Amino acid sequence: MALGTSTAAQAYELRFDTGRICLDLLATTHPVERLGSLEVLRAWITGSGLVPPGTSLAHADPSWPAAFRELRGWLGPLVRSRPAPGSASWDRALSRVNDLARAAPPAPCAVPGDDGALVRCLDGPPGLAALLAAVARDAVDLLTDPVARASLRQCEGDNCPIVYVDTSRGRRRRWCSSEVCGNRERVARHRRRAALTRT
């Protein structure tokens, strides 16, 4: 998990290892729906780094999870398929992500921390539109960066839909997580070999 990931985020088995916030949002569907409650969404917002640790999200209301799930639905076709301008569903998804990216993201500011070093905080409580904008802008950056787009990979794990940015040396990463899907593949390979030696 990413540095700064909250304990609450870990408790909900949220993952932040795709290399981009927008892809981390896509990963919240696997293996089951993760954004079914406001409590989990708050943990995801903090764990993803959208807001600094300790930022209050008490003002979030029950409409927020649905809004994040809707954005996630628009991101899926844009990230998982080749650009398809002219396709009604692809154009609609792109238009919606662009609309969401227009809002101003949360405004950061630097303040002295307990030890006197400057720390990042937000100028005020982040609104829903601002948080959605931050994720949508991350998606726009990803989709318009040819190098990053060329580094997108679909996990090779069985039934794993996670898309990640491959920043490994040689660009040979096969799984979203070596500890999760990679370990499953190694265990399955070991079991197949063991079964062959028994026959």
Tell me, briefly, the overall form.
globular
**Radius of gyration computed on alpha carbons:** 19 Å
Are there runs of 5+ residues with pLDDT below 50, and where?
A: 1-6
Amount of beta strand: 5-15%
Q: What would you call the structural class?
A: mainly alpha
- Report helical residue fraction: 40-55%
Average predicted local confidence, pLDDT:
87
The separation of the N and C termini measures 41 Å
Kindly report the spatial arrangement of strands forming the biggest sheet: 1-2
Task: List the keywords.
199 residues; mainly alpha; two-stranded antiparallel sheet; 8 helices; 4 strands; 48% helix; disordered N terminus; CGNR zinc finger domain-containing protein
Task: Please characterize this protein's 3D structure.
- This protein has 199 residues and is mainly α.
- It has helices at 7-11, 21-26, 38-47, 63-80, 88-101, 128-144, 146-150, 178-198; strands at 108-112, 118-122, 152-154, 163-165.
- The strands form two sheets. Strands 1-2 form a two-stranded antiparallel sheet.
- A hairpin with an 8-residue loop joins strand 3 (152-154) and strand 4.
- Helix 4 crosses helix 5, helix 4 (63-80) runs parallel beside helix 6 (128-144) and helix 5 packs across helix 6 (128-144).
